[in-house]
């Protein structure tokens, strides 16, 4: 299958999948740590039947296969297209932005195979963007948030080229999870992304944005560990694997997150003016913290104080849940930030959901929604949440969610009431339902906490 893009012809496979299409120049040499530059054109036909390289990163967990190896280099700014019908015109387009704590992620990961989703009649695009220091490290004289700028460049490519794959450039829905969801929320609040998409689905929007001073401190710590100056020249002298070896010298889940640069990112997304012309679905898994590590064996009052809650918060959480630490930390990390984004998008059409279906291994944990979104229950990633074989209820619920997502991408209506001021919320469970403000107790605790 041949398609002509604005850089040259590409050949996909017989299933209508085009992999590894460059949307920007390789970020290497003088382009390393720079904003994405346009891709070079080519003559003839470029074979696009294999995924491009992942961005530099470590393996996401002990024993997990690494998405990137040192020999893969830096040529990672590619995307993939699944089209159900090359001969069609005006099909809805869905563009996936992966998560991974801002330091992991690649479109070649099997959990992001979009064949099942595209079979619903949508063109699906999955996008690589730079993670870790390459994408989010702060350097003097260098643009911050290069990973988000990569996403914008990919969306601009979609606008220029997706019609050739049967898609409608005027009907693009961005969707993503975790760091990908946060990226989408940030894109909703920046003029640089205005007009690049019509709808958005943000699955689990996390907290965690750094001031320039905080980002400078991270860079200084990594530079000291690597033995180089905290400058662009200092880091450019390091191979990617040398940076990866010391990137986790700072405390916390990740050394990286979007930097409040006053340009692309002016603050957390819930503090920005989110584009009211973009329809938005956002939501969370009910037990978000369970996907972030073991539950701490700590005094609930001490946990509350550590995350800035008032002294009576521990008592309040004990009153409405049997697992107050999980609920409190789930609220702090994702459930409240996602709700705040829904509230901040009050000028536009907004839908909220709570994924409460509990898998047999770790419950309704962070990340469990990804196999349901793509309809892929047997990947290594999926079996962490679903076990083997997956529960019989997986298939029907995955189909319901995929139908809601693709219907939203097509018509702008996912099939449940809008959020409005009653906090109407879709409950994704074996029997989906709608509830009014199911996190009212949590919101009452957090309402006076500055965010």
Question: Helix and strand layout, with pairings?
Answer:
Blueprint: E1 2-5, E2 8-11, E3 17-22, E4 45-47, E5 78-82, E6 91-97, H1 115-118, E7 123-127, H2 132-136, H3 146-161, E8 167-177, H4 179-188, E9 199-203, H5 212-226, H6 232-236, H7 240-244, E10 279-285, H8 300-306, H9 313-320, H10 324-344, E11 350-355, H11 369-374, H12 380-386, H13 394-411, E12 424-428, E13 433-436, H14 440-446
Parallel strand pairs: 2-4, 6-7, 6-8, 8-9, 9-10, 10-11, 11-12
Antiparallel strand pairs: 1-2, 3-5, 5-7, 12-13
Helix pairs in contact: 9-10
Structure description:
The chain is of the alpha/beta class and 451 residues long. Helix content is 30%, strand content 16%. The protein has a 10-stranded mixed sheet with strand order 3-5-7-6-8-9-10-11-12-13, with helices on both faces. The protein has a 3-stranded mixed sheet with strand order 1-2-4, with no helix packed on it. A hairpin with a 4-residue loop joins strand 12 (424-428) and strand 13. The radius of gyration is 21 Å and the shape is globular.
Distance between the termini: 50 Å
Strands ordered across the widest β-sheet: 3-5-7-6-8-9-10-11-12-13
* Secondary-structure content class: alpha/beta
Helix content: 25-40%
Q: Outline the biggest β-sheet.
A: 10 strands, mixed
Can you count the helices?
Answer: 14
What does the average pLDDT come to? 95
Bulk shape: globular
Number of strands: 13
Provide the low-confidence segments as ranges: none
């Amino acid at each position: 299958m041949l398609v002509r893009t604005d850089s040259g012809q590409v050949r996909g496979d017989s299933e209508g999948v085009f992999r590894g299409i460059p949307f920007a120049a390789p970020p290497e040499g003088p382009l390393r740590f720079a904003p994405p530059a346009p891709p070079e054109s080519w003559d003839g036909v470029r074979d696009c039947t294999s995924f491009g390289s992942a961005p530099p990163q470590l393996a996401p967990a002990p024993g997990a296969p690494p998405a990137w190896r040192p020999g893969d280099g830096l040529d990672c700014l590619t995307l993939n297209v699944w089209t159900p019908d090359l001969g069609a015109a005006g099909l809805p387009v869905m563009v996936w932005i992966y998560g991974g704590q801002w330091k992991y992620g690649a479109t070649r990961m099997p959990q992001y195979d979009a064949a099942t989703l595209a079979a619903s009649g949508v063109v699906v695009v999955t996008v690589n963007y730079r993670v870790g220091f390459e994408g989010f490290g702060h350097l003097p004289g260098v643009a911050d948030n290069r990973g988000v700028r990569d996403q914008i460049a990919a969306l601009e490519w979609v606008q220029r080229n997706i019609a050739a794959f049967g898609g409608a450039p005027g009907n693009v829905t961005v969707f993503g999870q975790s760091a990908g969801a946060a990226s989408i929320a940030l894109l909703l609040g920046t003029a640089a992304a205005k007009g690049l998409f019509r709808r958005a689905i943000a699955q689990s929007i996390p907290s965690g944005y750094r001031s320039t001073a905080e980002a400078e401190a991270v860079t200084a710590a990594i530079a000291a560990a690597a033995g180089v100056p905290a400058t662009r020249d200092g880091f450019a002298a390091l191979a990617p694997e040398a940076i990866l070896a010391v990137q986790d010298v700072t405390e916390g889940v990740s050394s990286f997150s979007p930097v409040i640069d006053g340009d692309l990112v002016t603050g957390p997304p819930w503090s920005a003016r989110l584009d009211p012309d973009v329809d938005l679905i956002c939501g969370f898994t009910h037990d978000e913290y369970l996907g972030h590590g073991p539950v701490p064996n700590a005094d609930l009052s001490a946990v509350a104080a550590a995350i800035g809650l008032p002294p009576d918060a521990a008592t309040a959480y004990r009153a409405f849940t049997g697992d107050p630490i999980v609920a409190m930390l789930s609220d702090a990390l994702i459930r409240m930030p996602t709700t705040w984004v829904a509230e901040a998008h009050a000028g536009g059409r907004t839908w909220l959901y709570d994924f409460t279906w509990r898998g047999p291994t770790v419950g309704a944990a962070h990340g469990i929604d990804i196999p349901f979104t793509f309809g892929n229950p047997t990947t290594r990633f999926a079996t962490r949440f679903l076990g083997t074989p997956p529960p019989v209820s997986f298939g029907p619920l995955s189909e319901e969610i995929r139908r809601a997502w693709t219907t939203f991408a097509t018509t702008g209506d996912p099939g449940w009431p809008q959020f409005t001021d009653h906090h109407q919320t879709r409950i994704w469970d074996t029997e989906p339902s709608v509830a009014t403000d199911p996190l009212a107790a949590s919101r009452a605790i957090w309402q006076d906490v500055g965010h």
